[in-house]
Amino acid sequence: MVYSNDRGIDLHIHSSASDGTFSPCEILTLAKKLNLAAIAITDHDTIAGSKEAIDMGIPSEIKFLTGVEISAAPPPSFSCSGSFHILGYSFRSDDPVLNQTLYTLQMARKNRNPGIIERLKNLGFDISIEEVLEFAGAGQTGRPHIARLMTEKGFVGSINEAFDKYLGKGKPAYVDKYRIECGMAIKIISNAGGIPVLAHPSLINICNGRNFEDLIADLKEMGIKGIEAYYPEHSKAQISNYVKTAEKHKLLITGGTDFHGSLKPDVSMGSGRGNFHVPYLLYENLINSRQIGQSVFTVPRIKPKEK
After folding, report:
1. What is the dihedral of CA 260, 263, 269, 275, to 10 degrees?
2. Which H or E element spans position 180?
3. Is the dihedral of CA 201, 280, 15, 185 positive or negative?
4. Which residue segments constitute the domains of the chain, with CATH numbers given?
5. Mean pLDDT value of segment 162-180
6. Residue 292 burial (CB < 10 Å; 0-12/13-18/19+)?
7. In this structure, are residues 63 and 38 in contact, taking their beta carbons and an 8 Å threshold?
């Protein structure tokens, strides 16, 4: 089968195994319908979605990478706010250390939910943990499910409002959770035969006077292998800068939509908000890096589209 750079890829997709609303089966069906050349299901702190997709059988038209998105703490020398996440690709899904680490992180998510619900009750909301668990279904439960239930019950007008007013960091119903050190997350992915990548760098706010170049230099020493340069929230200029940074540090570049289904209804798989495209060449680079045991950087000659 011939794969062309004209066919896009999406290496950042969430399923119902975490906080997405599409099952792994529905994701594979949609990816085939959209003519995507390669995808990865990168659920938060779980690889259940990847495993389920593999067990069902990947359509021959689609290249598939095992994936995960691990919630991590920034390096000790950095004061950061925002979403500090490490993506992992093409690892052994049966690796015991990876699976045990993910189980610990899943328990951390689960154990903070009652505290969030208690705070919401104290704020006057009629909501229970039993309602949240029933609403979330079989996947792991977290703040997005609570936000969706709050929206369904009319407490807020949207999921974003739930986070902005109540569930986001520093808001009255926020409860912090355990996060693994980023160096450990990188090491665990690497030891499982995978490729660790810094997720959506624009969502990280570095607060102590240091810069993104410093952060990448530190992460590279820890073993990071790539940067998610292509992301719907990144402007053309940001994509260009992240690609240049990856080139400078001899790192891979990846990209994806961060698709969550109806949780983020304005973001479509493969195309983001309609003008987003991740070149197939990035998938080839990832595979080549696995085959020769080191990072391979090739700058895509397809220009990123304007937001």
Report:
1. -130
2. strand 180-181
3. negative
4. 9-103+181-292 (3.20.20.140), 111-167 (1.10.150.650)
5. 90
6. exposed
7. yes
* Alpha helix segments (H runs only) across the chain: 24-33, 48-56, 96-122, 129-136, 143-152, 159-162, 182-191, 212-222, 236-248, 280-292
The DSSP code for 44 is B
The answer for 57, left when phi > 0, alpha when psi is -120 to 50, beta otherwise, is: left
Would the pLDDT of 168 be above 60? yes
| Least-confidence region, from 95-109, 127-141, 145-159, 272-286 | 127-141
Q: How far is residue 252's CA from residue 302's CA, in Å, rounded to a whole number?
A: 16
Tokens 């997005």 locate to 144
Q: In the block, which residue shows the tokens 């066919």?
A: 7
* pLDDT at residue 5 in the model: 53
**pLDDT score for 82:** 64
Specify which residues 80 forms β-bridges with: 206
| Rounded distance between C-alpha atoms, residue 280 and residue 303, angstroms | 13
